[in-house]
Backbone:
């Protein structure tokens, strides 16, 4: 029994170690911020940068980051440096892409997908506009601010995917829904049936659940699968 228990603990530790993220420092606009680096087991197929939502941090995107790394991507999840300036956060995200392409994390193909949740959806959209050669953009129940996303959408040359919840106060009553009319290469704009705003990030966010409705593991799994399928397609 003790041998089995020790074996199980060793296996658990090995699995946990396989998913452990590195911590890296970045600097942009005079600010230093941190990011989790999730490496794949083998040579990466490209890079995915994940951006969290308002009042959240990099840990709220762990499950998606781990899944994408397991599928072969180098995944970078920063703590966005600006509290409420999506343009400044877009610059930070673009700087991450530049550093990665310059070889900071070793030899990584240039293909890059930007994925953002809520306010992070707006920041990644703006970063896609300012960063050449982005392979794809994914908005997870994104939220616009002062029409910035609407004005930027027509200038997004990358393939795009939007996954959304029904209009609610937590997604500013779906104020990003009109982006889809202007994104030149929108592949799908999907309303995830029954989804709450919290379903698009990790389930252990009790603040989000209290304000916006609890996340559901099955819906979250469906959302991650849709994101992974798009990333697989764009990072071939």
Residues:
């Amino acid at each position: 029994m003790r041998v089995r228990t020790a074996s199980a603990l060793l296996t658990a530790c090995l699995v946990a170690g396989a998913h452990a993220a590195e911590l890296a420092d970045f600097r942009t606009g005079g600010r230093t911020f941190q990011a989790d680096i999730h490496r794949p087991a083998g040579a990466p197929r490209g890079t995915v940068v994940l951006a969290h939502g308002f009042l959240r941090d990099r840990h709220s995107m762990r499950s998606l980051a781990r899944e994408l790394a397991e599928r072969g991507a180098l995944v970078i999840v920063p703590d966005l440096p600006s509290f409420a300036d999506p343009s400044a956060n877009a610059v930070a995200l673009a700087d991450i892409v530049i550093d990665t392409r310059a070889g900071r994390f070793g030899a990584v193909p240039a293909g890059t997908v930007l994925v953002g949740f809520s306010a992070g959806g707006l920041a990644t959209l703006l970063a896609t506009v300012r960063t050449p050669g982005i392979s794809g953009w994914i908005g997870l129940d994104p939220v616009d601010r002062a029409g910035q996303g609407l004005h930027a959408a027509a200038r997004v040359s990358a393939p795009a995917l939007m996954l959304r919840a029904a209009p609610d106060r937590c997604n500013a009553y779906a104020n990003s829904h009109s982006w889809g009319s202007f994104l030149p290469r929108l592949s799908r704009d999907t309303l995830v049936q029954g989804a709450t705003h919290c379903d698009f990030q990790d389930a252990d966010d009790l603040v989000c659940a209290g304000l916006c409705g609890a996340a559901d593991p099955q819906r979250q799994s469906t959302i991650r699968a849709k994101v992974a399928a798009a990333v697989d397609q764009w990072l071939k």
